[in-house]
Model the fold of this input.
Amino acid sequence: MSVDPRIASVTNRIIERSKPSRELYLGRLREMAAKGPHRSTLSCGNLAHGFAACGPADKADLAGNVAPNLGIITAYNDMLSAHQPFETFPDQIRAAARAAGGVAQVAGGVPAMCDGVTQGQPGMELSLFSRDIIAMSASVGLSHNMFDAAVYLGVCDKIVPGLLIAALSFGHLPAVFVPAGPMTSGLPNDEKARIRQLYAEGKVGRDELLEAESKSYHGPGTCTFYGTANSNQMLMEIMGLHTPGASFVNPGTPLRDALTAEATRRALAITALGNEYTPVGEMIDERSLVNGVIGLHATGGSTNHTMHLIAMARAAGIRLTWEDISDLSDAVPLLARVYPNGPADVNHFNAAGGINFMIDQLLSVGLLHEEVRTVWGKGLSAYAVEARLGENGTVVRVPVSKASGDAKVATTMDKPFQPNGGLKMLTGNLGKAVIKISAVKLERQVIEAPARLFNDQFELQAAFNAGSLTGDFVAVVRFQGPKANGMPELHKLTPPLGVLQDRGQKIALVTDGRMSGASGKVPAAIHVTPEAKDGGPIARIREGDMIRLDAISGTLEVLVPAAEFDAREPASADLSHNEWGMGRELFARLRDNAGPADEGASILY
Done:
């Protein structure tokens, strides 16, 4: 099946736009690759330090410069449920590498914070920038020049994008991403949301809320809603950085362990020492990134990736834009209903066929580039499979079913849940913004109402608690962008705005902050750029101005005469309370130098 002309058109314009930077990137990559396995360039003292702690067999292999050495970059810590299983992965990888004639060493660890822990807390203001720090930390680990390939252990929100930026910065090395899988299903997500709203209304207490949250987030593995962490796993699969079928297998199972061992063997097989050399910087190209965007739309994935994908693309010399992402949304139907876009969790989604079923459906009508390189070889059709445990404890794969295991969770191309994808760009006299519409009912996708102004989410909460948020309104929450305070996620807004909408009020949110993968049923224009701290138009909105958010036509406007609006002085805000405490004083330079959201909100590019 040839690729759909709409997909080809967007891909070709990305290729043309990216030519100068991509050619420079590939030239540098090939210069590094031409130097061959890099331990040969190390002095004897360098090499002795590099394998001093290894056992005799590993020392002999590394000294001979013929056995491939895998560098393990791990984001393990005990506090993230999704990352706790990684504690045992280095031992598994080392054992699998030795059995396959290679060596594996932990090259370095990277920080990994949990946004679920820091929601509404000062630490959340470090979250977005942790992505770029993770990329730099991984680069430190790989800079020892001891490795023929790298395996990356990471799952959650900023960790995987940061790891991929690092992998692409070392683009001459093959890279395999090894997931840990989602926790088993607990309290249904829609029930958790119901309890949160009751708590926001004061109808249940903290004990009931904590009980519900604990039943939802209850064990090792990724949180089971379809937020940024699970969107990351979908992206790594559809971009060919996982072995096929690896994304959503629960931790601590024989199949999960078999997939980890298999990923190790595959990483060894694609080094420059073998016949299948697959440097990740050449493997990931414009088509791979377009496939990732299409997967995001088809599954209703995280809005965070409107920034992360752009930053990851730039690490490979590729210039991806919000316009590209939005135009692809118009060509790709929504094929999945996973919370917050529906009641199912990722385990239900995987049981219904999961991302591999989606890949098969999208390939069947030319909505993906099939002829891409992956860690498994050439061709994305190799990912239209289900991974199972074979009798001998290895992984076997069978073609996915052409029928969904649950049509309410994963549907076919002829019966999409909606005709377009989950993410759109909005433009107008307030700048540019992003909206996730996959969970927003059609009748709520156009809102015109007066502005209510807030300088953080806590001001809005206070107004809600005081009962002053009456009538229809658009909540404008500003001074929440990268330069203002690091662009924290604003999930404290979700319960009160959801309550007001359920009461029959017409509600929308406009913010230069983030709402992330858990963006739900309230229409939210987020990542507004330029941000208020940069004097963007959002800073010139006044209380009571009429705002029109139209997610159907893709516009975001303040309905004030242009001459009057342009003549206004931008508002200012006291941000001194965001500048210290919980390490925020160490991030001042990052805030000052952060790029805009539509360019990835990065300090690196």
About this structure: The radius of gyration is 24 Å. Residues 5-184+219-399 form one domain. The chain has three domains: 5-184+219-399, 190-218, 423-599.
